[in-house]
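Dock EPU; give full complex structure.
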Amino acid sequence: MQALYSRSMNRIRYEIEVQSGVDLTHLNTFGVPSTAAAYTAIQSPRQLEMVARSFAAEEVLILGGGSNMLFLHSPQRWVLHNQLVGRGIMSSRNGFSIVAAAGGEDWHEFVKWTLAMGLGGLENLSLIPGTVGAAPIQNIGAYGVELQDVFHSLKAMDLQEGIWKTFTKEDCQFGYRNSLFKEEYPGRYFIAEVQFKLTNRNHVLKMDYGAIPDQLSNMGVSEPQPQAISEAVIAIRQRKLPDPSTIGNAGSFFKNPIIPLIHFKKLRERFPEMVHYPAGDGLVKVPAGWLIDACGWKGKSEGAVGSYKHQALVLINQGNATGNAVWAFAKKIKQSVRQRFDIELEPEVNLIAY
Ligand code: FAD
Ligand code: EPU
């Protein structure tokens, strides 16, 4: 790997600044220690083109806000930190606007900007950490809305072919916390720009999910607009989820498992209080937080690693935990859930193992 860096990097080092020994501890929201042997802040599409010509996809690690990653080791790959910025309204007609944002834009700042422009669609996705470019990777979702509901298209650099590609919604194969980019081609496409289809008027409001109705009523709002829904979602999230600037975490550590109805029915005989949601033909989604809580892990710690006291699914770094310590704790939780419920939890967080 080292030889490869020097061979290819010599060719492009005059045009791209490559830093070595960059501390990534503050560039991942878990706050676990990690160091990049090679690091470049990508600030223009041109830089990306040069990188793609010189390196294969498996030789780079794309870093956004580091809010859905767990470093098990210091990455041996070349870390490309997405800092592409820019946003604008591309077109407006028939009550809709197509809005574009560069991949390195901060997600929540972008959501706030769309709301300030009077556009609707992203309000339920307020306060999710990270970048615009990472949002399609796991089809981010919250409070009854997923990215795919407002997605128009994206532009990405194919790091294998060295060419720009445009992906429509169908191309992206979005699913629950999943997409083509996460499932089939991890690391191959560097998402440089995402376009959204948002409403200018007649906003389609999703306000029946979870605690939103109660929150709106506490706020004294009876006829909400997107801005009020955003404020309600922010208030709920601030109550439930730890702020990564004070407690290291990456949101939900595991996905909510989807199990066959027949398995669920057997479990319900033993655990009638088990929370569940229909998930399509013969399938049931069970909240991982409930399962972990039922195994007694909520609020428990081992050293600096723990399960958050208000949300068992959020694993936290309360001090100087390493990525391996977090993963060792997560594996114990997986084992408990497997033993008690015969359910295999799958990490939502991306484990960085090389
Ligand atoms: P990173 O962590 O930097 O990267 C995540 C993955 O995407 C990595 O595999 C990386 O290589 C890849 N990647 C990043 N950028 C690009 C790019 N431009 N092109 C190609 N690949 C790329 N998620 C939800 O869905 N819903 C929530 O409600 C939610 N709440 C959260 C709450 C908290 C407190 C935290 C800490 C996290 C939460 N998350 C949630 C998870 C996280 O915020 C999202 O997954 C977010 O989209 C990650 O963005 P990022 O820029 O930090 O990605
Ligand atoms: N629950 C418990 N104990 C817990 C945690 C949860 O019993 O410790 C129960 C709750 O009472 C509730 C159910 O589990 O009945 C679901 O909990 P919650 O509403 O908090 O949502 P979640 O399923 O844990 C999901 C997403 C979140 C998203 C919220 C809101 C996943 C893996 N997580 O959490 O996304 O913000 O819904 O829509 O789908 C993320 O992906 O990082 C993330 C935070």
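Observed: Confidence is low (pLDDT under 50) at residues 1-7.
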